[in-house]
Amino acid sequence: MLFKRCILFILLIIIISLSPAVSKTTEEKNQPDASTFVNKDVTFKTNLHFSGKYCDECHEKIPGKDKNMHLKFSGDFTWLCRCHGYTPATYIHPVDIEPSKEKKARIPKDFPLKNGKIVCTTCHDIYKQCQENPEYAQAGEWNRRFYRLQMLFLRGDIKKRTDICFKCHEEQKYQKLNPHMQRNEKGEIIPEICLYCHVAKPDEKTADYEDVKLIGDLKMICQRCHGDMIRHPGGIDHYRVPSTKMYIRMQMLEDKFETVLPLDEEGKLTCITCHNPHEKGVIPKGRRGAKGASESYRHRLPKILCQACHGKLEDLY
Length: 317
Description:
Blueprint: H1 2-18, H2 26-29, H3 77-80, H4 101-106, H5 120-123, H6 134-138, H7 141-146, H8 148-152, H9 191-194, H10 218-226, H11 244-257, H12 271-274, H13 305-310
């Protein structure tokens, strides 16, 4: 029995070795590979920009004053920009598409279309990087970050990367939800906003922190928008259970300043220990949970926040 299995295995190996190689799919054939590079020292990891040495990687010959770019690959930017690994599923914006009449009306005149379609050069002024830039070449790694926008060759007056998006798209349609704006124009609480953090809208008139049910870990709820805040003064060291001495001090502070300094479910300091996440007016005036809602950074102990716990206690009285 074992002998027969060995024979079958050997026959299978022979059949596979003699089988013709599987041909590439049409999609694979249409993807650029390293063979398209002219210079022997160039790979997909080579930075072709700001050197002025690799014109022949994209141009048949140096462009002249006739505005003919003499682009290779029939001007197909999927191939010209092959180092960036463009695929429709991975790039930040689709190309080779014709925008709607509404979008076309918003596209600035200095953002050129090609045959009525959006291409890489619609947003990127690639000529900016064709010339040698000694200042960039001599800059250290930190200063090179300063040139990031220049490296992206973005058109127009750009202060941050997303500025270019709103040259064509309406910014107000892409605003982030601010879960701290919890009242409408009439001053009424918007229950749907409460559910961004709460399992159910608490009764703002009677509920205490112990009555509130959150949708998950409180720290992670805040970090969804604010990130890990590593450089924040309240960084990692503050996400801890306070000592008995500190806990007693916090209770004294709550009584003196008629506020609350809540801990999370594990008894640890957390974001809302120091910051009131609610908009002014959500928690009725007079309740301790209302303190800090109108202060800068929503500090529950404005102007003395750090000193309240780390300074001399007698200085607070």
